[in-house]
Recover the amino acids of this structure.
């Protein structure tokens, strides 16, 4: 019996420590690390929400169901942490002589919540109860700091996405990179887009940091159903690629730097979830955009009077050479989060392998 209690005590202590470590890695450590909370809670819950969304034929109802997944999963984290600590410490209490197990479980719950409706006088169990109470207060503190961090990052992400989406919509309300450039031409500001490239370079840097440190943000959908952070990324990248390849304007290094930053950002988010991509693609590799799509934009730009380069064949080659670098990561993330269809950005689904939530990063 002593050997059994010793084994239960060791396993229970490891469970409590693992749960606490999961909370610390999720909230405190500034990089993405593997946590069992994500594996056990996030993906199964996501499948439930996907199944629930399929019950509705109305796209707006489906999007509303999917939009609830991120916040629900976020609030599940502290519940799972609390359950893990209570179960772990209850095993410790039982191993230290608190019997039956029901009393050990009640004592553990009382200690974690610091409600004090069950106490102990034995020094070892009293020590564990005090430590568990401190852990409970720590979990509350982590949650209090975690929520503002998550929603602060979400707000900053969505501010830029909303601004871009409003500028990139055409007369029908559909957003696209071509509409963004056409609007800038209409107000005679095509040669003044440098601030936008700088803004989106900063945006991509922050998205890479926040969406790998706090991967639940990937599933937070935009307040407006037609918008998506993945679609915004695609519009910004394709607008820069069209600007640099198709328009007869001075060379724009900032747009090129933004595309480089955006490509690496999307790739690293894909790495985090285990989605494969070619790190060194050939410019001739297939992409989600076809030559016919490109020619439609050429015709649209010509009709609107945008300045086009003379060699359209080379323009297509140049555009495809830019797009091939971010094509698979962009389409993978768009498919993964089931982003609303946006021309050239999220309307080209791709077959995905099962994501590995969450991948350890070195």
């Amino acid at each position: 019996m002593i050997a059994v209690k010793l084994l239960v005590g060791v396993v229970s202590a490891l469970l409590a420590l693992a749960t606490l470590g999961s909370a610390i890695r999720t909230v405190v450590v500034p990089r993405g690390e593997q946590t069992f909370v994500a594996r056990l809670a996030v993906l199964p819950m996501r499948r439930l929400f996907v199944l629930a969304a399929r019950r509705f034929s109305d796209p707006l109802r489906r999007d509303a169901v999917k939009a609830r997944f991120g916040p629900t999963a976020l609030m599940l984290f502290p519940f799972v942490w609390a359950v893990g600590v209570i179960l772990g410490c209850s095993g410790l209490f039982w191993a230290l002589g608190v019997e039956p197990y029901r009393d050990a479980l009640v004592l553990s719950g009382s200690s974690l919540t610091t409600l004090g409706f069950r106490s102990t006088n034995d020094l070892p169990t009293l020590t564990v109860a005090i430590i568990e109470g401190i852990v409970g207060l720590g979990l509350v503190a982590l949650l209090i700091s975690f929520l503002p961090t998550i929603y602060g990052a979400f707000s900053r992400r969505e501010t830029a996405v909303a601004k871009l989406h409003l500028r990139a919509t055409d007369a029908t309300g559909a957003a696209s990179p071509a509409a963004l450039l056409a609007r800038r031409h209409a107000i005679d500001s095509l040669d003044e887009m440098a601030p936008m490239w700088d803004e989106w370079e900063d945006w991509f840097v922050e998205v890479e940091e926040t969406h790998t440190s706090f991967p639940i943000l990937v599933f937070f959908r935009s307040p407006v159903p037609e918008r998506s952070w993945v679609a915004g990324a695609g519009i910004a990248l394709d607008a820069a690629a069209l600007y640099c390849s198709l328009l007869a304007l001075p060379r724009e290094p900032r747009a090129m730097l933004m595309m480089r930053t955006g490509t690496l950002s999307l790739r690293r988010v894909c790495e985090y979830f285990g989605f494969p991509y070619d790190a060194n693609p050939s410019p001739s590799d297939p992409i989600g955009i076809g030559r016919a799509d490109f020619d439609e934009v050429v015709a649209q730009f010509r009709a609107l009077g945008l300045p086009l380069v003379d060699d359209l064949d080379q323009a297509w080659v140049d555009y495809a050479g830019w797009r091939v670098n971010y094509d698979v990561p962009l389409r993978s993330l768009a498919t993964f989060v089931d982003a609303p269809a946006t021309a050239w950005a999220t309307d080209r689904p791709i077959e995905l392998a099962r994501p590995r939530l969450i991948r350890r990063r070195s």
Notes: Residues 357-362 have pLDDT under 50 and may be disordered. Residues 168-336 form one domain. The chain has two domains: 2-143, 168-336. Residues 157 and 203 are 7 Å apart (CA to CA).
